[in-house]
Structures are given as C-alpha cells and as structure tokens.
Amino acid sequence: MPSLTRRRCDNPHRETWDVSYGDVRVGTIGERAGIPVGADQWGWSCGFYPGLEPRRHRQGTAKSFIEARAGFEADWHSLLPELSDDAFEDCRRDRAFRAEIRATRARGEKLPTEIYSSLMRCVCGVVFDSHKPDESYDHRGHIHAAYNTKATKRAVTKRPQRKEPQHGGPC
Ligand SMILES: [Zn+2]
To answer: Is the CB of residue 142 less than 8 Å from the CB of residue 124?
Structure first.
C-alpha cells in the first residue's frame, strides 16, 4: 500500500504542501490566506478530482502545521476505504490527457480537434478534398445539382395556395 508523501509548493506568499498517495496528488496542507490573528492559520483539503466528487472531499483548519497534518491524515484514513481503484485511475487518465495536451502545445503543434479539415462528403457518398480543384470539380456539380433540386422542391411546396372565393359564406 502506498504511503502519503508531501512536497512543498512553489508559493512565495504562503507555505503550502501538496500531499500525494503513491503517484496521485490527493490534497493540500497550507497556511490560509487573509486570516485574522487568533484564528486557525492552517488548513487542509483532502480529496482529488476527477475520481472523487468534490462534495466528498474533506477539509479542516488547525492552529499549526503539525495539527493540520494530523487532521489531513485522519480524514485521509477515513476516506481511503471508500475509494475504488477506478477513482485513482480516473485521476491518472486525466493527468495523462492534460500532459499530452501540454506536450503537443510545447511542440508547437495543433490538437487534433484544432486541425481544420478541407475534406467534405459529397451527396454521392464520396469524401473528397475541397482544396483540390481536380478532385472536387465533379462533386461540386453533384452538390450544386442536389441543392437546386431541393430549392426547386421547396419553391413548389411553398407556393401559396390561392383559395377559391367562397360565395355565400361569411366575409
Ligand atoms: Zn459527388
């Protein structure tokens, strides 16, 4: 079973620690911001997302780092038996996905969803590259013809029906 490990965050304003369980970051312990003198200066947050719904995360405050760490560990040990392996797996998958996006951007490449495609599907069922004139010429004809047929049909069906004047009825 993995153990909890802490790593100091790069936060120049407040002491903050990331807490990990094995390779998954499961929460933080840190100095709280803007807290009046006399109130608890330390807090912890126990939980991770995706994998564990935010409403199931646990948090608390304490007078010192030592107390906050003890509070975190108590919360974690009551939470851990409720967690499935899938919860950790969700978190790892999400992390891998984000890392892949960052790596793609770092290489100056576009994400698959950002690549503009000039491929079109013709009404005849063939997929062609609309940026290649010789490839698309015939299909432009097909699409144009189909469009005209539709437009004609619409014009026919939408032609207003003239009502025969009814004599003798109420005007
Ligand atoms: Zn075609």
So the answer is: yes
Per-residue pLDDT of 38-87, as tens digits, reads 999 999 999 999 999 999 999 999 999 999 999 999 999 999 999 999 99
Cα(117) to ligand 1 centroid in Å equals: 18
**What separation in Å is there between the alpha carbon of 140 and the centre of ligand 1?**
7
Distances 13 to 27, 29, 46, 68, 98 between C-alpha atoms, Å: 19, 14, 21, 18, 27
Ligand 1 centroid to residue 133 C-alpha, Å: 13
Residue 120 pairs in a beta bridge with 128
In angstroms, how far is CA 26 from the centroid of its own chain?
Answer: 20
Distance CA 47, CA 168 (A): 81
- Residue extents of the structural domains in the chain: 4-100, 119-158
Distance (angstroms) between ligand 1 centre and the Cα of 171 equals: 54
